[in-house]
């Protein structure tokens, strides 16, 4: 069982880290694009150049080549969650199979079909545009690290098989023979997951936007969003961008619409990346197929192998920073890095001497149902989407397509989903929000220490369909 107490060894391993995303620390990162410098009239304005915004602009440009499309980014392309995640591209649209099954059981066959198709289409787009981003459909292994978690995995495996999902169960000997960790007790393999270099994917999408004539402006923070009759007035850098249609894809960042304010809270997630493993170190752990791995605690870890043979190891902490929200100063947290270093060594004790080169954090937009939601504003001229709660690399393209359907008033399989038609319950306001989130986090930690036993508070949240996660 993982300990949440940072050790001296953990601090030693993390003190010389580069405190920036491994993905963004790349000499091939494109030069910054200029900020918006004039008033513009557009058919579509996309606010946010993360995956949701990039896919929205790209799919719109492909469908409507005559449209004038503008993308506004307050910082740099992929500077937020898009360039700070683990690079897992899952077919799930519902933040995992179990979450979707518990909330939309009658729609799960359709959600599974749409998710699998979306994953394949992402791969097709990458090939079509020749985006070099280490795209690999490796699958993902969900592991049990405590005995009680094995039964949970077996139940999930059974439910998946009932719905035709081609998962495969691995017992203790099988999973340890495949990936050599003394804490693995069992696992299920999900083939419908890819891994990717998320920053290079985002940069590739942006390059294609430029080829298609889409204007992308960086360092162009939007200050105001107002309905002006036939258009939405978007103010950025002192200039007016008039959009006939708008996609709002700011996710964890402060919402430009008050109606989103209580539906999403930003939480911080942290990641470490090792130096490249030697041949001997790699042989000591196996893991030859580079599958993504996630464990089964309430506070999960996720890990994978990069193209150059490093291990990325992240997760566990999901830290709410209160009313301060999102601030670059939270991108570094030495206590979280130390915990991750300890947990890494517990997972792979044979790699205790491996050092870490990068450690970073970033804000995730979490909502009480753990999955994306949509809404309209300004008489339907603006559509917003938020609340991914992680696992958004793949789901973001589905979210973008759904947003474009809603903007254009199209009745599609996507827009008919209850998942799309409904919204999560709001988080409580003010100081009570911090109390609820803090108590929930402590309760989840206690459940992990006590073989998954959920206290009265967690059982109440379960009965209401509420939660807090990253």
Short description:
33% of the residues lie in helices and 22% in strands. It has 13 helices and 19 strands.
Describe this structure in words.
The protein is an alpha+beta fold and 470 residues long. Among the domains are: 33-130 and 192-264 and 367-427, FAD/NAD(P)-binding domain, CATH 3.50.50.60; 147-191, no CATH class. The protein contains 13 helices and 19 strands. It has helices at 8-14, 51-63, 97-103, 108-128, 147-162, 172-178, 198-211, 279-285, 334-347, 392-407, 418-421, 430-449, 456-464, and strands at 40-47, 69-72, 88-90, 140-144, 168-170, 186-190, 193-195, 215-217, 222-227, 232-236, 239-248, 265-274, 292-295, 301-305, 311-315, 319-320, 356-366, 373-377, 382-386. The strands form 3 sheets. Strands 4, 5, 6, 12, 13, 14, 15, 16 and 17 form a 9-stranded mixed β-sheet that branches. Strands 1, 2, 8, 9, 10, 11, 18 and 19 form an 8-stranded mixed β-sheet that branches. Strands 3-7 form a two-stranded antiparallel ribbon. Strand 14 (301-305) and strand 15 (311-315) form a beta hairpin. The longest helix is centred in the N-terminal third of the chain and has 21 residues, at 108-128. The radius of gyration is 21 Å and the shape is globular.
Q: SSE layout and pairings?
A:
Layout lengths: L7 H7 L25 E8 L3 H13 L5 E4 L15 E3 L6 H7 L4 H21 L11 E5 L2 H16 L5 E3 L1 H7 L7 E5 L2 E3 L2 H14 L3 E3 L4 E6 L4 E5 L2 E10 L16 E10 L4 H7 L6 E4 L5 E5 L5 E5 L3 E2 L13 H14 L8 E11 L6 E5 L4 E5 L5 H16 L10 H4 L8 H20 L6 H9 L6
Parallel strand pairs: 1-2, 1-11, 2-8, 4-13, 11-19
Antiparallel strand pairs: 3-7, 4-6, 5-6, 9-10, 10-11, 12-15, 12-16, 12-17, 13-14, 14-15, 18-19
